[in-house]
Amino acid sequence: MRRAFTLIELLVVIAVIALLIGILLPSLGAARKTARVTTCTARLHQLGVALGLYWNDFDPYMPQKKGPLPGGGESVIGSLFGGQKGTLPFYGINEIGAAGRPLNRYVLAERVPADEDEGVFPMEAFASPIDAGSANTGVPIPGFDTTDSMLTLIGSSYTLNDHTLEGDEFATLVPQGGGRMPIVANTSKTWALGTHTIYNYQQGGDRGMRWFGTKTDKRGTLVRANLLFVDLHAKGSVPVPEGVENETEEYRFAP
Could you report the per-residue pLDDT of 181-192, keeping only the tens digit for each? Predict the structure, then answer.
């Protein structure tokens, strides 16, 4: 005589499976998040290799590109260091594509795509898997005041250390108007490239860049950044304290 499972036994099995899923899902989610952060850091390291090659040709210059200013004239725009066209209609960000951004030819194994070819050739090195955009870009124009992706808005998930948190007029590794990088006193602490989250508290505001989650850590830090330093080592999940803090135990803006 065949013995089948009773209804109660099936319900017990289902309950056990549901319990195990409930236990495992949070850890799986945390693992996926950790993997994305690690991938982002690895891409920064890839950009660091490219930056080192760039310095072999243009030492001691940071990759820099001038773009038009809204009031006329032009200036070095940190966001144009690499990547592709963004959608922001200022500073040449939606006009200067991959071919005109200086670090690209040191990153891409194939040819740098012309403006009309953008999107055909993937530029994954400039795309962070944790890029969650900004709740407040600082652009007072509907449609550009917030974004789900800095890659889409700017053309890269990463930014150049060209000014402090006080504002664009306070230069760091790129002098006002462009030129040679100043002597860096501590190359292992001064950051060169990083996720846009490093500028979350620029001028004391809060741009709402919650790329690493919405919960504070044990030290009460809500915002974090992945950074590449001048000595070309990369570090992930670096705490970014609230307010205008240009130097912490782990990084500094100034050379």
Answer: 999 999 999 999
